[in-house]
């Protein structure tokens, strides 16, 4: 499958995403303060932190679903700002998976997966279908291709959402609490899909409270509180030897 | 809608309700006094000359009517829902016919005028309504998008438009266009004036319907589309409108039906549509009721056609999801 991608290939060392001194306010409320973060190709980042700490805000700034007011955000060398002309092109290379799935209910599973490549990548229908089926196989639900989203369970819907993103052949995948809207027995099927994806070498940024997943997959865990990055470290460091009091309190609560 | 799975006792089968209902209906019939109508005539053997039957006659007529009414309800209550609906429809329709026949209609008069009513009146009514419906729909789509855009001009023009044209009576708009435009140097005929007024007025109402329909689609649909790199027009066309249309159809069908009948306002400009002919054809022979009732039946039939079409489309969209 060689569809054209819009972001130039990076070497292993240059960051795919880099944030410098990013500040964001909702009205008077500062949701992000002074965020510095670099994410390299193939890196897996888990972002965690208490509710309201700005995790969603941060991840949504990365494909500019939210606008930041100060600092710079670069994605594959392209700066995101309010007057940019090619935001759609950047977004095509960044997959995003939402807590609430956000599948298109009027399209079948297959059509959901074909839409992006066919409508904006210019891939013809038969190629797009081929790829969609391949991705549905990868998330292990090819047999649901002709159903509509609301005929599927939550776990299945989320896996379709992942397949839909993958069909665009993204450089980076963003996950915003992909399992928190799911019943407990469906969480693992989605996590397994994400673990497989990680093994395939995808660059991933995941907001999640699934600490088992973080321990297994993350290269780095970023802990946020009150709009700031409090600390970031490897999983061993993070779980065994947290540096900040806030991190300890958070870990105590979540791991109890 | 959710129909509960537990069946309550039918009110009609409770003696207290039945007695209360009977007394109420009796009182109403007594107050309305049907003695001097057909019903009084039927009871002539019992009450004598209806006009001189006095209190007894009035009470007897009311009592008989009440018994017929309540027994009818009681019997119907034992049928299945669908049968009930059919029976009540037929009964109401027969009542309507009885109402019509009570005017001593001259059928030959109706028959002689009906070709003109259909070839000229019905044709013009459909012609005006159909064109207005198409134009109003186009206006509504553009207006709704303008109202949702963050372009200041587009929003201002669109909101001014809906405010103005929802704010004036349609009849007034019709006169303003028909009489006002010529004074500015634009000659307009009655039919184009009517089409313009109907399109603009209903376009304004439908703009609001379309806007609300589009806004009812969850934000997540926009976000997911944006995250895939879709542009505004694509999102609207392929993601939002297909979901908004099933929501928009019922109120829009309502607007079409209302517009069909408001096209009768064109009659004040002398356009030979149904209403105009209904008022004028019977004038010379003093056969007003014949023509008015004929027009009524034609309007009603047209509305039923629209209702059926609307139901079909709703059904089609229901199957899809
Ligand atoms: N659109 C908005 N307008 C105003 N305030 C907002 C908006 N979105 C988020 N916030 C605020 O910004 C803060 C960070 O929100 P965010 O959704 O990023 O938190 P989060 O870490 O993702 O929390 P959660 O774990 O509950 O999802 C919160 O205090 C929230 O109330
Ligand atoms: Mg969140």
Helix and strand arrangement:
The complex is a heterodimer of chains A (256) and B (321).
Chain A: E1 15-26, E2 29-40, E3 44-48, H1 55-61, E4 70-75, E5 78-79, H2 87-92, E6 94-97, H3 109-120, H4 125-138, H5 154-166, E7 172-176, H6 184-199, E8 203-207, H7 211-217, E9 220-225, E10 228-233, H8 235-240, H9 245-255
Parallel strand pairs in A: 3-8, 3-9, 6-7, 7-8
Antiparallel strand pairs in A: 1-2, 1-4, 4-5, 9-10
Helix pairs in contact in A: 3-4, 3-5, 4-5, 5-6
Chain B: H1 15-32, H2 38-42, H3 44-47, H4 54-76, H5 81-101, H6 107-148, H7 152-167, H8 170-183, H9 190-215, H10 219-227, H11 232-262, H12 274-281, H13 288-320
The site of magnesium ion has 4 residues of chain A, from helix 1.
Observed structural traits:
heterodimer; A: 256 residues; alpha/beta; four-stranded antiparallel beta sheet; 36% helix; 25% strand; globular; B: 321 residues; mainly alpha; flat; binds adenosine-5'-triphosphate; binds magnesium ion
Report on the architecture of this protein.
Chain A is α/β, with parallel strands linked by helices. Chain A is 36% helix and 25% strand. Chain A has a six-stranded mixed beta sheet with strand order 6-7-8-3-9-10, with helices on both faces. Chain A has a four-stranded antiparallel beta sheet with strand order 2-1-4-5, covered by helices on one side. In chain A, helix 3 packs parallel to helix 5 and helix 5 (154-166) packs parallel to helix 6. The longest helix of chain A has 16 residues, at 184-199. Chain A starts with 14 loop residues before the first strand and ends with a helix. The mean pLDDT of chain A is 93. With 321 residues, chain B is mainly alpha-helical. Chain B is 78% helix and 0% strand. Chain B contains 13 helices and no strands. Chain B has helices at 15-32, 38-42, 44-47, 54-76, 81-101, 107-148, 152-167, 170-183, 190-215, 219-227, 232-262, 274-281, 288-320. In chain B, helix 6 runs antiparallel to helix 12, helix 7 (152-167) crosses helix 9 and helix 12 (274-281) packs antiparallel against helix 13 (288-320). Chain B is flat. The mean pLDDT of chain B is 91. The A-B interface holds A 63, 65, 88-92, 94-96, 98, 100, 102-106, 115-116, 119-120, 148, 150, 164-165, 168 and B 218, 220-221, 223-224, 226-231, 234, 238-239, 242-243, 320-321. The complex binds adenosine-5'-triphosphate and magnesium ion (MG). Adenosine-5'-triphosphate binds at residues 26, 29, 31, 49, 51-57 of chain A.
């Amino acid at each position: 499958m060689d569809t054209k991608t819009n972001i130039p290939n990076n070497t292993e060392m240059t960051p795919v995403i880099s944030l410098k001194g990013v500040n964001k306010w909702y009205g008077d409320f500062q949701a992000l303060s002074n965020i510095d973060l670099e994410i390299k190709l193939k890196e897996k980042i888990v972002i965690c932190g208490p509710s309201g700490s700005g995790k969603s805000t941060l991840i949504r700034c990365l494909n500019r679903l939210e606008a930041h007011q100060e600092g710079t955000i670069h994605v594959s060398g392209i700066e995101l700002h309010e007057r940019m002309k090619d935001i759609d092109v950047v977004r095509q290379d960044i997959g995003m998976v939402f807590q609430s799935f956000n599948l298109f209910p009027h399209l079948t599973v297959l059509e959901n997966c074909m839409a992006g490549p066919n409508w904006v990548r210019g891939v013809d229908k038969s190629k797009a279908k081929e790829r969609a089926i391949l991705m549905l196989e990868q998330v292990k639900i090819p047999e649901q291709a002709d159903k509509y989203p609301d005929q599927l369970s939550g776990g299945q819907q989320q896996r379709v959402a992942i397949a839909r993103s993958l069909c665009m052949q993204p450089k980076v995948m963003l996950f915003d609490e992909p399992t928190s809207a799911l019943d407990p027995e469906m969480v693992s099927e989605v996590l397994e899909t994400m673990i497989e994806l990680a093994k395939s070498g995808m660059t991933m940024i995941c907001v999640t409270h699934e600490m088992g997943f973080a321990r297994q997959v993350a290269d780095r865990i970023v802990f946020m509180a009150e709009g700031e990055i409090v600390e970031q470290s490897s999983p061993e460091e993070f779980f065994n030897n947290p540096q900040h009091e806030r991190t300890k309190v958070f870990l105590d609560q979540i791991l109890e | 809608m959710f129909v509960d799975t537990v069946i309550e006792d039918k009110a009609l089968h409770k003696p207290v309700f039945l007695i209360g209902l009977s007394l109420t209906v009796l009182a109403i019939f007594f107050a309305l006094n049907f003695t001097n109508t057909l019903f009084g005539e039927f009871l002539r053997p019992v009450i004598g000359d209806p006009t001189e039957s006095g209190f007894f006659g009035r009470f007897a007529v009311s009592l008989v009517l009440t018994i017929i009414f309540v027994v009818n309800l009681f019997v119907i209550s034992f049928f299945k829902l669908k049968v009930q609906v059919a029976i009540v429809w037929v009964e109401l329709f027969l009542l309507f016919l009885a109402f019509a026949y009570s005017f001593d209609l001259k059928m030959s008069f109706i028959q002689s005028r009906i070709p003109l009513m259909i070839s000229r009146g019905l044709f013009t009514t459909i012609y005006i309504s159909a064109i207005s419906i198409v134009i109003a729909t186009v206006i509504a789509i553009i207006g709704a998008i303008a109202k949702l855009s963050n372009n200041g001009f587009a929003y201002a023009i669109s909101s001014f438009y809906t405010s103005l044209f929802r704010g004036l009576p349609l009849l007034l708009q019709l006169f303003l266009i028909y009489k006002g435009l010529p004074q500015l140097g634009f000659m307009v005929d009655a039919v184009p004036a009517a089409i313009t007024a109907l399109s603009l007025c209903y376009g304004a109402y439908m703009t609001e319907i379309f806007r609300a329909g589009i806004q009812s689609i969850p934000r997540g649909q926009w976000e997911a589309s944006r995250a895939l790199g879709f542009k505004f027009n694509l999102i609207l066309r392929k993601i939002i409108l297909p979901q908004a249309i099933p929501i928009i159809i019922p109120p829009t069908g309502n607007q079409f039906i209302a517009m069909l009948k408001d096209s009768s306002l064109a009659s004040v400009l002398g356009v030979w549509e149904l209403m105009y002919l209904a008022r004028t054809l019977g004038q010379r022979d003093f056969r007003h009721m014949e023509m008015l009732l004929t027009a009524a039946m034609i309007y009603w039939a047209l509305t039923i056609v629209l209702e059926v079409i609307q139901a079909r489309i709703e059904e089609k969209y229901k199957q899809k999801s």
